[in-house]
């Protein structure tokens, strides 16, 4: 089971648990996440969903083996189901991040309500270096959060975002010392569980007034993303990673 699911005291905790592969996300893991979030939505005893990663990092993003074999929409069905469930989730979603949050590992945080990270966390949107494009409304949300110029550095240069910068631009709620992160997030989840259910859900709903625009941009990005996956640049980037060799930049034309 690459997603560990533990429901206790009103909190459904979803732990990305594929440590030997840096918690990179497979189709099966996306499906488990989607199913769990949908189930939490139907379960009155769950008020909060908490997402974290086991081992040395949050996640290294999409499994690149899967990317290399995906070039049409059927193959991203599970990823889309997960992100759609997250965007439409009525329960409060809290993320606890450490180490690395790569690709969709950062994109998914844009759809969480509260995000806490360790000081050493780096957020990386490497799509451009893989011949790919932003996904799951990051091309809509990041320019609004950070301004077009800063978002362009992240999305066009693929520059890592340090924890402090992520907090300055609203990607995270707060940076918490590594040794206090687990306890702090547990306390925040319990504080949320103690809030009045109707008011909590409605507060989230009221702040989610651009969901239609987000879903529309997700669809627009997906079309381009699937096309990008078929380019020579993307195929070269995937092969280079899987063969553990440098990219041949002549193919980045
Ligand atoms: N997909 C598939 N496997 C991955 C992976 C990914 N996204 N990220 C890491 N892994 C695997 C590695 O292939 C390696 O497997 P192996 O032990 O069988 O060789 C294992 O996880 C450990 O990764 P490694 O690269 O040795 O760890 P590291 O600490 O040196 O580097 C990263 C960690 C995350 C910086 C590096 O693995 C990386 O760049 N991964 C790709 C990130 C990425 O581009 N993701 C796609 C986002 S769109």
The residue-averaged pLDDT reads 96
Relative strand content: 15-25%
Instruction: Going across the biggest sheet, name each strand in turn.
Output: 1-2-3-4-6-9
Distance between the termini: 40 Å
Structural class: alpha/beta
With helices defined by DSSP (H or I, 4 residues minimum), what is the helix count?
11
Summed up, what is this model?
With 253 residues, this protein is an alpha/beta fold.
Give the helices and strands, then pairings.
Blueprint lengths: L2 E6 L2 E6 L10 H16 L5 E6 L10 H6 L7 H12 L3 E6 L2 E3 L1 H4 L6 E4 L4 E3 L13 H9 L1 H9 L4 E2 H6 L5 E2 L2 H16 L3 H11 L3 H18 L3 H11 L11
Parallel strand pairs: 2-3, 3-4, 4-6, 5-7, 6-9
Antiparallel strand pairs: 1-2, 7-8
What features would you highlight for this structure?
2-enoyl-CoA Hydratase, Chain A, domain 1, 6-stranded mixed sheet, alpha/beta, binds coenzyme A, single chain, 3-stranded mixed sheet, globular, 253 residues, 9 strands
What does this structure look like?
This protein has 253 residues and is of the alpha/beta class. It has a domain at 3-179: 2-enoyl-CoA Hydratase, Chain A, domain 1. 47% of the residues lie in helices and 15% in strands. It is built from eleven helices and nine strands. The protein has helices at residues 27-42, 64-69, 77-88, 104-107, 138-146, 148-156, 163-168, 178-193, 197-207, 211-228, 232-242, and strands at 3-8, 11-16, 48-53, 92-97, 100-102, 114-117, 122-124, 161-162, 174-175. It has a six-stranded mixed sheet, sandwiched between helices. A hairpin with a 2-residue loop joins β1 and β2. It is globular. The model has no long low-confidence stretch (mean pLDDT 96). Residues 21-22, 24, 60-65, 100, 102-103, 126-127, 130, 241 line the site of coenzyme A.
